[in-house]
Batch of 2 targets.
Target 1
Amino acid sequence: MKPRLILVLVLLVVAPVALLTVLGARIARDDREIAAHRWRDLVAARLVAVDDQVREFLQAHIRPFTEYSWDEAETGKVSDALTATGLVRQLFVIGDDGMLMFPKLSAESSTKDREFFQRTTELWRSRDPLFHPPDAIASPGDTPAMDPSPDATPFQQTPLDSGGLRLASGWYTWHWSDGLNFIFWWRDGQGHTVGIELERMRLIADIVGVLPDTAPEEAASERIVLTDSHGNTLYQWGNYESRDEARPVYTLPLSPPLSAWTLNYYGPPDMLAAAGGRAVWFNLAAGGAAISIALAGLALYLYRESSREMREAARRVTFVNQVSHELKTPLTNIRMYAELLEDELAGDPRAARSLGVIVSESQRLSRLIGNILTFSRRQRRALALHPKPGCIEKTVRAVLERARPALEARGMKVCFECADGDQAAFDADALEQILNNLINNVEKYAADGGYLGMRLCRDGDMAILTVEDRGPGIPNGEYERIFQPFYRLSNKISDGVTGTGIGLALSRELARLHGGDLRVIHGDGGAVFELRLHAPVARGVAT
Amino acid sequence: MRIKGLNGQLSRSSAAQYVIGALILACAGAVAHSREIEMEAGLSTPVVKAGAPRTAYVKVRLRGFDIEPGERPPVNVAIVLDKSGSMAGEKIDRAKDAAIMVLDRLNPRDVVSVIAYDTTVSVLVPATKVSDRETITDAIRRLRAGGNTALFAGVSKGAAEVRKFLDKERVNRVVLLSDGLANVGPSAPENLGELGASLFRSGITVTTIGLGLDYNEDLMVLLARRSNGSHLFAAEAGDLAKKFSLEFGDVLTAVAQDATAALDCASGVRPVRVLGREGTVEGQRVTVDFGQLFSNQDKYVIVEIELPARAAGEEINVGEVTSRCLNLISRKTERHKDRLAARYSDSDDEVDRHTDANVMVSVVRQIGAERNEAARVLRDQGKIEEARRTLSENIPWYVDNATRFKSEQLRVDGLETMKDLDHLDDGAWRERRKVMVEYQNAQQLQSLGYVE
């Protein structure tokens, strides 16, 4: 019984907690996904802001250049002024006829100009409209019809000036010497296309100068890496150290003309949880823990209550047991001396009657005590039978004879039919105890019926004894329950009648130990008990 | 002996030359305290052997005047420190000491910024006037080493800080310290060289200090040279204070910047090349940037030209030398002009007698440096024997010319070359190479407080 109780109590705690955990995990997962999404959006916004910063920087540095209008006489000065900014590597001018006007390639060209032609050879050979047909550039609204060379991105035309004069300008990028090179070009008022080739390394350095630095004491929460078209790091900031194989959480290509470069955001994996999931997890865990504790407390309380009751019951039984044991010896003495007196006062009918009452009552008390002690043995699982050869009929008759005075005093008629007089192996004490209980019950509950009928017969190895009365009988639904310990029929029958409530339980227990059973069977009026005992006929045994 | 081709007129008699020379020297002495940059242009052979086209050299020298310690121009300097993992221990401590020592030499008119880089870059002290020394010193003291070497990013941030207060009248400079190979961001020497050249054009000079034996001296020297800055080699952490001191000795005595010189060759005279320094040859015009000029120090350039064949007795106009610089003390742009002329003669003796030893010593040095550099390239390719041969041939070049022109300097150069020769083997080469690179850069740019 106890392990089952524990199991039930554990289930009482575990089942709701498990359910809660599953539900909580699902909520947390959903929440984490939402948080992760939100975080990605946040990261994206950060990278876009960085990109804006770079674009603004470029525009701020490039826009002033477009104010230069080309004048052949001033070319040298303009070129010097532009290159003195450090950001411009080379100035070139294409006339409205599509011919290169500056710089001129000749035997006297400086090494700087020669290098420029070397770098840009492919551009002059390319079919890009920027470097050739004047018509395509003359009308900025038109989209260039020519295919750009495979290495070059198509140049874009973006009107810079909104006031009256429409200026076309744009970027041109190409790969040379293991990296991207940049040309910014614009059209001046006289139809010249003026281009400046940017100093590649300086451009990177200036962009690095604009981007944030890393505060040494800052928490290692993120790392943003700017990579070039080959995936090489140009610059990075933030204290988070990602592992080499780690993939960025988010990547964003920069806006043109730097679209070959990429911003990569790295962050710790638990950043997702930190972005909001952690709070949900905490709440769920706290709720779950509170409920678990409450349930566990309840289960513990129930367990303690139940075990306390059991302990108390056990204490009561022990107490009764000890008392019974103590009562047994004086009672035996009383019986013995009463029987002695019976013989001595044989002639006096008044004394004989008084003695008869004393004897029968003390016998009743003995039975009671015997029941209690047997029950407590049963409780201790120390009940054992000792079948011995004997005559069942004789034992039954002896019991009946002892009970007869009390029964008859209540005006009951006792009837015994016997169809089995053979010797058999059985436990006489057990049989006596069972019979005493049954007879006692009849005496207590069915005395009004005025009849007790007993019949002994045999079915193979089984001795069958039926005890029948004509009392109020036992309701159908109670046939089994009356055999439970401490169960008493709660109706008028049992009202005002005392009893320990263990007689029938004990009797059935003994009968079953004896290889048989005790049960109620349907009778005409009152209650009919059928006792079956495994009591094989002992043929070879001398009487 | 010096000959100045002043006003292009060279007297026929050598006596007259002496008189004019002495006069000019006297004048130069008299105006030495005039707070102006002094320009001197000379031809290696004012008297040329007649009959065939002849190679000659033009030396243009600019000299910074003396200043008192209190009157130096304000500086705008970014100190960029390497705090990568390899700097841990004594190196970073000495670097901090050196940076703080530099700070002590600056005054509240100066602008300083401190940048530290490892895998990423931290601007420890954004460009600020040197008034709150405590804060700046604390930021430097807090530095801890660890991580990779994002050298390019470090220089970029340093330059960005300098640009915040970029001013023609300040000495604008990035001082970069590194002890390792750049491994984050662009790291090809040529890339850093491009950056250096670009920064120089916008008025910023980069000085590089290499510490220990693990840094890439080619990258560091190219970055410095293209921006007209010095490159210094500190073999030990203990040398850092000395090297920083040397560098700031220059920075704090700059008297002019944006110095450029141009030689416009007369027709018939062909400009061939510029020795040592970076220069531009465009048509008949040769231009060279000197960057900054320091108190009481010379910077010069040697231009190789080809003189046309003429008959003995003829005189020709070789060309015009002009220079321009911003005098940081007077805050005015100074311009100087000089003409060069040559006379043809049949007599070898006369040609020899008139050969300008001063110019020739510089020519010998630059050519010697070129050869030593060629030897270094051979050694880099693993051709130790060929490098050895090149160096050993270069020793008599120095020694013979030292005797011929009575130059102590050339003798020292010869001795240095002999040392180079002794250190070509694997064990010693790594350190020696760094010494060579430092020495050659100093020789070519006349940086490092080097006075001939």
Target 2
Amino acid sequence: MPKRLLFALLLLVAAPLVLLGWLSASAHQQQQRQAREQLSLFFRSRLGEIDRSLSEVIDTYERSLRAQLDERAVTLDALRQIDLETPIVRSSIYVNQNGVLVYPLKPQPEQSEKVALFAALPAIIRSRPELGSYSLQTKATLPTKRSTTGKTLPPSRSLPPSLSQSNDQAPVSEQGIVGEGKWQVWYMDEGVQLIYWMQHSEGAIIGVLLERARWIADLTTQLPDTVAVTPVDNRAGEPSNPMPASQSGSPGSTQPESIAATQSGFTALTDEANRIVYRWGEDGRRLDQPLAALNLAPPLANWQLEYHHRDSLAGPSPTVFLVAPIVGTGLILLSLGIYVLTNVQRQMRSARQRVSFASQVSHELRTPLTNIRLYAELAESDLQTFPDGQTKESVSRRLKVIDTETRRLSRLVSGVLEMIRDPRKQREPRISNLVPDDVINQTITQFMPSFEKAELQVHRQAEASQTIGIDSDILELILVNLLSNVEKYAACGGSVTVSSKIKDDQLTIEVFDQGPGIPWHARKRIFRPFMRLDDSIQAPSGTGIGLTLARQLARRHGGDLELVQDETHQGACFRLQIKISPTKVTQPPEAPSQP
Amino acid sequence: MFRSSLITAACICLLTAGGIANPAPAAASQVSLQVGVANPTMLAGSKQTNYVRISLTGFDLPQPEIRPSVNVAIVIDTSGSMNGKKIGQAREAAIAAVKRLRDNDVVSVVLYNSSVQVLVPATKATDRQQIIQLIRSVKASGNTALFAGVSKGAAEVRKFIDEDSVNRVILLSDGLANVGPSTPRDLERLGRTLVKEGISVSTLGLGLGYNEDLMSGLAKAGSGNHIFVEDAENLIAVFNNEFNDLMSVVAGDFKIHAQVGPGVRPVRVLGTRADITGQKIHIPLAQLYANQQRYFVIEVEVDANEPGDSQSLVNVEVEYQNLITETKDKVSSDIEVRFNESTAVVQRDRDVQTHAYCAVQIANERNIQATALRDAGEVEAAKKLLNQNVLELRSVQAICLEQQLTEVIPALELNINLNRTQVDYVEGKDWNRGRKIMRATQNQIQSQQAQPYSQTNDQ
């Protein structure tokens, strides 16, 4: 019992805690999500600024390439010089107005790298972006630095007729770059390659394949170093020295530690294959899901800037706020529960003491009772030797009363003992072979004197005359309880019917009186211990345990006792059903006699 | 401005073309250019291969205390693998190097692990004590973002880039690049673009864990030294040597243009990634040290010619920044070949010294092939190539000794020894170490660098 109580107490404490925990956790999650979204938005805008600074690098390339090609006469030598001297240029590409590749020249077969590039060029040129339909007519209307547009040679003659003899300084064209340039993205070698295409006057097209390693290096250079205060803060030009907080003790460190401490993440530039190209900030593991991510502006649209936060939580440690109320509530509930539990336990202990007291008293009553019965019987037998007479008869009658009352008292004591016995220690039914009707008749016989006195007639319908295995003590006890009830409450009915039959391995006994009956709604209540329907002074004396005991006994025997309804009669009808094994012949095991 | 051209058509002059092109009075402050050809007389009647050697020799520093200012970025790997003795030695080496700087030198220190930290942004080395203090605080942990480290180091150099100073990135690494671009080709390409700007890159590979292809490739493309530092103990000495080189640079920003004559096809430039477009060859070179002789070998294919013909083989123009006089100087030279039907005449006229230098470079190419073969597991084939190198170089050496050409003898001897000892590396169990030594020496031969790897107890 206390174990179950303890469990109930724990449940009582745990349930609200779980609820509280869940509520605060979900609230916290909500908060966190909001904070994360805000942070994400914040860092996205920062990444946007970084992206703009990177776009600036690409724009610079664009401007310098245009300027380089615009200011000099585009000869093959000039193109080669650009290739050799401009760090960012890997190779320039010149396609004349007829769509013929003029530069680069076909390389020597020994130069494997150039050969590979040359082989890839036709495909690159084919899929170059459209530069818009520029014609010489529109060129004339554009403000150009040259006024000699009309003097331009026909397009077919502006290029040397033979490519192999292009070693001289023959101009390919003397016109400038016109219109908008466009970027082409091409996958080759290590990954994305950038090619900038420009429209030259007279319809020629110049492309510049950038050196991938170089623009990666330039982008990297543009990005901040580690331990920058903010992701956008480019400290490259500052003489101050960014240092990790751990080294801040050395001279020259101007890094404000407090700001550095709030930067608990890192930013990374990732390439088209989602590999990190460069990262700065803290030394953290890369997560699957960055806090904020931003694709770079075209042409590097498949490159990404990612910001990874060290912990998924933002702000100061939230566990204290989350755990403290739960722990507090838990403590309060627990102390409350312990208080209730100890109270209940105290009451239970006192109840147990009372029961134990009753049990001891009952035990104490037994010995004198037995003695009284014994001496009453002895006195009775002694009386037989006396000569008949008035005195003998009256003494005999009084002795009988003593006998009857002691029996009644003894039954009561047995009942009480049976009642308060620990259910786990109750004895098993002791089955013996006998005829149920005999037991019933004997019991009725016991009651005959009092029934006669109350003018109660007993009707017997005995149909259980087979020998079956049954515990006669239990059967007798049940019957005694039922009959004494009839005697006490239904004597006014004038008659009681006791029927018995055996059917389908079941012994059924019905005790049916003609008394006032029991209200149907009370049919369950009457079996509860210490329950009396009429507890007034006028009511017949009783303990309220008779029916409880009878049902307990019946159940222990594998049967049941219940009140049945009979519309035709007004009295109460109790039906006892006991499962029996009619072929049982073995002697019941010798059980220790119960006190 | 001084220009030497070979007006005399006499073939005898061709043998000593360089000698003529090197006037004595100006030698003190001019880079001398020598162009030689292995076979000044070629066999007539069929297509022939010939080798041209372009040799540049740096002049002596006029006074030891006068030297061009240096603009150097020291890029140090501070990844986790550097922890312990290595980082300690790296710190000491960098500090020793900084101590040698003068007030008008520019220095920056860049650290890289998972990310990059510019420890000392490019600054005049006036307050060396503070820089040293900062270097002392360097610790190691994390990954290796080598590419970003070089990029940022170069960016620091770029801030004070000057054509009259020596601009260099010195990269120290002991591990494999694992953040950012990390193939040898990525780094080579980056190195090449840096040379276009006049920034050279030297790489110091520390221990046995670094990628020698990447490090030597970067140094080669970056026109700098590559040194295999097996033991961290030697790091200070290696840094010292590197700074010796750095402080003895006399000329920089070279533009070596060679144009082969008609009917001549430039096949390749041995050991250097030169640009060949049509008949034009461009060889990148960032700088030349005092008294350093640096040469390049061009393999050419010459079309069949009639006996008795002569034809222009190659015209070489070299433009460079003289860091002592702080002027842009130019030297040029050209060379012709004659044709003869007799192989004996061809043999007789052979320029043995040039031929020997070419043989060294050809052998080096085979040495690189041997490394590739060993990588593929073909130990025997690799050994065969190395032994072939030893034999061929020995025969060349014999002829040189006979003709008392002492200048080339040390180079030949060095190469014979290298190839002979490398047979053991190819066979040996510790291929990782052997391969690093081979790469370092290959780079040494190609760039005629003084010290390929810090010597431990062998070699």
